[in-house]
Amino acid sequence: MIATRQIHNLSLIGFSGTGKSSVGRLVADALRFTFLDTDSVIEARAGKIIREIFAQDGETGFREWERRIVEELARRTRTVISTGGGLPTVEGNLASLKAHSLVVCLWASPEKIFERVKGQSHRPLLNQPDPMAEITRLLALRGPFYRQADVLVNTEMRSLREVAMQVIHQFRLAQAAHK
Ligand code: S3P
């Protein structure tokens, strides 16, 4: 299936705290690609932070922003795209990313994710009395979407740099397969 695709870009999907933005920046630097974070693009366009978008327009409003940005990404080349954790769960988004990019999912267990995101308050979906239970619930719901990535990289026992090297290796393999 990948053989019929055009791999101009690299998309990183996965739950909050799996290192998408940090790894994405390292990968973009190494490949000399542009780095783009969908959350940052949405905040710049909307003129408000994600917490405010959720508060004013609800999760539905936020997902609509994501859908629109994903549509626009099809026009990009040489870009590393870091996506919000819930973006692949919306119908059409994954297929759209796969049309122009290698989709890599960064994975970690709920315990590891909790350890990495605890104490942070900018994610509305995890601002709950029991964030660990919410992470476990959402990960179970999202697993089937994350597993549709072309490549799954476990981030648990690896440093950000090691994860980035693994992602770059997979990207080079995919590009070589499409020449
Ligand atoms: C979300 C994850 C966040 C952000 C928004 C919703 C989610 O991005 O898009 O708060 O649905 O899991 P990160 O994955 O970068 O934290």
Description:
With 179 residues, the chain is α/β, with parallel strands linked by helices. The chain has seven helices and five strands; from the N terminus they run βαβααβαβααβα. A five-stranded parallel beta sheet has the order 2-3-1-4-5, with helices on both faces. The mean pLDDT is 95. The structure holds shikimate-3-phosphate (S3P).
Please sum up the structure shown.
The chain is an alpha/beta fold and 179 residues long.
Q: Which small-molecule species are bound to the chains here?
A: shikimate-3-phosphate
Give the end-to-end Cα distance, rounded to a whole number of Å: 15 Å
**Secondary-structure class:** alpha/beta
**Unreliable sequence segments:** none
How much is the radius of gyration in Å? 16 Å
The largest sheet is: 5 strands, parallel
Instruction: Determine the strand fraction and express it as a percent band.
Output: 5-15%
List SSEs in N-to-C order.
Answer: EHEHHEHEHHEH
Number of helices: 7
Average pLDDT over all residues = 95
Strands of the widest sheet, in order across it, are: 2-3-1-4-5
Question: What would the keywords be for this entry?
Answer:
single chain, 179 residues, alpha/beta, 7 helices, 13% strand, binds shikimate-3-phosphate
List the SSEs and their pairings.
Elements: E1 9-13, H1 20-31, E2 34-37, H2 38-46, H3 50-73, E3 79-82, H4 93-100, E4 101-107, H5 110-117, H6 131-146, E5 151-154, H7 160-177
Parallel strand pairs: 1-3, 1-4, 2-3, 4-5
Helix pairs in contact: 1-7, 2-3, 5-6
This protein binds shikimate-3-phosphate.
Shikimate-3-phosphate is lined by residues 16, 20, 39, 50, 84-86, 123-125.
